[in-house]
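ok, trying the design again with the full structure, not the truncated one.
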């Protein structure tokens, strides 16, 4: 799994907060089982206690992502 330093983690957090505030879609790059995949959608909620993100990828369809698996966040304008 790629190592994410504190500045990258903070940048991801800021992008997530910005996207939530302005209801913008994000593209989240996720590391799972040695492979990367992209999940694009709107952040539905963030659970800092369980370290989870919930992303609405289609109307009524959600993906749950563990913070530790996130290796990139891009706000899609």
């Amino acid at each position: 799994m790629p190592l994410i330093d504190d500045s990258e983690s903070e940048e991801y957090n800021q992008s997530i907060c910005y996207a939530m505030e302005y209801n913008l879609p994000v593209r989240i790059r996720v590391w799972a089982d040695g492979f990367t995949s992209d999940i694009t959608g709107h952040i539905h909620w963030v659970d800092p206690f369980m370290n989870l993100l919930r992303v609405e990828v289609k109307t009524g369809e959600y993906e749950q992502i563990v913070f530790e698996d996130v290796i990139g966040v891009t706000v899609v304008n």
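Keeping the full-length input from now on. Strands lie at 26-32, 35-47, 52-58, 61-66, 70-75.
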